[in-house]
Design a protein that fits this description.
By secondary structure, the protein is of the alpha/beta class. The protein contains nine helices and 13 strands. The protein folds into three domains: 31 residues, no CATH class; 241 residues, Alpha-Beta Horseshoe (pyruvate-formate lyase- activating enzyme), CATH 3.80.30.20; 69 residues, Beta Barrel (OB fold (Dihydrolipoamide Acetyltransferase, E2P)).
Length: 354
């Protein structure tokens, strides 16, 4: 019997099975969480890697089953994470994206170690093994001023934050078990914008109790234009969670229509923001051939996370075309709803040859 934090034992158990021996059932053993020494098989297909800094969650959101499956939050040691980043860099990575169910909870389970998210970010910045360091999945109630300053002023730390808010209506936030009320959320979003940090967020529509007034409050918040990127999900009841028993359910078709409207509102925000970039020169990390055509390269600016945000399609390179992993200067020539087109004007930093 293996738990979700027992992956390190898997090779030995599989080897025993292959040799015809059946290991006796055993309870999961306390082991290092995803130690850097475990082999990694990159699945991203680009010059970026995901760095899992912890696992589990203790926030108690009523809609989420993560604590039931993963348990309470557990952090990996800073030195172990630094070793993994070194390995990713040696294999050609130029960007690491920090992930966990709640990255801002980093270190809360190990107070005796004296490690928190700000300390981890400082260590990664000082290490300088990769060019870009991106922070994803932050909980709004735990974003400290120190973290904001690090993201805003870092050389390798990007001025970007993925901050899933889920809603803005006070009543819905209480029903969701979210511990960051509307006033604090608005103050945080304004502070991040003031610091020049690009924001991505996600919202849930159709949560039990979301009436028209609650949704209109959320729609107005999105239309204010605070966010570079917004993802929308309709509420889906998860077995074993408190939200399953909540009254005043919302019809699925209503939830879907609301999500579609939020995406349309954010689409207007995005179009205006991207149109204002035409004529500017941006630094772009080249990912490789685009999904649209193998003949067209695509990359991302510092405020575009891989796989979920927009991209920059690269055209008309001067001289030798850039390679995946290159950091290039791109003059933006055209904008779309979510993506940009640009002319490669120069190569800021070449990828290291393999």
């Amino acid at each position: 019997v293996l738990g979700t934090r027992d992956y390190a034992h898997l090779p030995d158990l599989l080897a025993r099975l292959a040799a015809g021996r059946r290991p006796a059932p055993a309870a999961p053993q306390a082991a290092a969480l995803y130690p850097a020494e475990l082999p990694r098989q990159p699945l991203t297909g680009g010059p970026y890697r995901y760095l899992k800094i912890g696992d589990g969650c203790a926030n108690g959101c009523t809609f989420c089953s993560i604590p039931l499956m993963r348990g309470r939050f557990a952090s990996r040691p800073v030195d172990d994470l630094l070793r993994e980043v070194e390995a990713h860099a040696a294999a050609g990575a130029r960007e690491v994206c920090l992930v966990a169910q709640d990255t801002t909870a980093y270190g809360c389970d190990r107070p005796e170690a004296g490690e928190d998210l700000a300390q981890l970010l400082r260590a990664l910045e000082a290490q300088g093994a990769v060019d870009w360091i991106r922070l994803l999945y932050a909980y709004p109630g735990r974003v400290s001023e120190e973290v904001i300053e690090l993201l805003a002023t870092g050389r390798h730390l990007l001025p970007y934050l993925d901050l899933p808010l889920q809603h803005i209506d006070e009543g819905i936030l209480r029903r969701m078990g979210r511990r960051c009320p509307e006033a604090e959320t608005r103050a945080l979003v304004a502070r991040l914008a003031e610091a020049g940090i690009a924001l991505r967020t996600t919202f849930i529509t159709g949560f039990p109790g979301e009436d028209e007034a609650a949704f209109e409050r959320l729609a107005a918040f999105v239309a204010e234009g605070w966010f570079h990127w917004v993802g929308c999900f309709t509420f889906s009841p998860e077995e074993g969670t408190a939200a399953v028993a909540l009254d005043r359910p919302v019809a699925p078709e209503v939830a879907a229509a609301r999500a579609e409207r939020l995406q349309a509102l954010q689409g207007e925000v995005s179009r205006r923001r991207l149109a204002g970039l035409v004529g500017r020169v941006e630094t772009v990390l080249v990912d490789g051939p685009s999904r649209e055509s193998e003949l067209l390269l695509a990359g991302r600016t510092p405020w575009m996370a891989p796989e979920v945000d927009g991209v920059v399609y690269l055209t008309d390179a001067e001289g030798e075309p850039p390679a995946p992993g290159d950091l290039v200067a791109v003059e933006i020539t055209r904008s779309h709803d979510h993506d940009l087109e640009g002319r490669v004007a120069g190569c800021a930093l070449r990828a290291q040859p393999e």
